[in-house]
Amino acid sequence: MEELILKYLGKAVDVIIDRPKGSAHPDYPDIVYPLNYGYIKDILAPDGEAQDVYVLGVDEPLVNFTGEVIAAIRRENDVEDKWIVAPPGACYLDEEIAEAVHFQERFFDSHVYSRYVLKQTEDEPKRAAPGAFLATDEA
């Protein structure tokens, strides 16, 4: 996982949305997506399928989206990880990412791996050096 995500962190990717914001999970209709969810057609995940993506920072349902890979959700008890894509320049604390994807990640032992190590101060979030790729405790 780390080699693949490190190759794409900070890069622009094209996402095809197959579960728009407000749609129900195809197998579990009680799970409604509070954000857009899709995949990157030309990148294969470890499960042999297209790389799955959560899209943060867009409030309306989408069909397609071009954004920047800012983090990944590492699932310890699954064969694949999910990537986080956001509008260029967007900055989220790991805790904000974990909260946004909790609706689905609560069923997995998962952790946020972010592009930057973020630390919240009283005034504003601060970024550490680019290229950092560290985990928080939970997603």
Instruction: Pick out the low-confidence regions.
Output: 117-121, 125-138
Rg (CA only): 14 Å
Q: What is the number of strand segments?
A: 8
Which CATH top level class fits? Answer: Alpha Beta
CATH topology: Inorganic Pyrophosphatase
Count of runs of 4 or more consecutive helical residues = 2
Task: Please trace the helix and strand order, writing H or E for each element.
Answer: HEEEEEHEEE
The side-by-side strand order for the widest beta sheet comes to 1-2-3-5-4
User: For the report, how would you describe the main beta sheet?
Assistant: 5 strands, mixed, barrel
The percentage of residues in β strands lies in 35-45%
CATH architecture field: Alpha-Beta Complex
Question: Can you tell me about this structure?
Answer:
- Helix content is 14%, strand content 37%.
- The chain has 139 residues and is mainly beta.
- It has a single domain, classed as Inorganic Pyrophosphatase, CATH 3.90.80.
- The protein has a 5-stranded mixed beta barrel.
- β4 and β5 form a beta hairpin.
- It is globular, with a radius of gyration of 14 Å.
- Mean pLDDT is 82; it is low at 117-121 and 125-138.
List the helices and strands and how they pair.
Blueprint: H1 2-8, E1 12-19, E2 36-44, E3 50-55, E4 64-75, E5 82-86, H2 94-105, E6 110-114, E7 118-120, E8 125-127
Parallel strand pairs: 3-5
Antiparallel strand pairs: 1-2, 1-4, 2-3, 4-5, 4-6, 7-8
Summary of the model, kept short:
With 139 residues, the chain is mainly beta.
Features:
disordered C terminus, 139 residues, 8 strands, 2 helices, 14% helix, five-stranded mixed barrel, Inorganic Pyrophosphatase, mainly beta
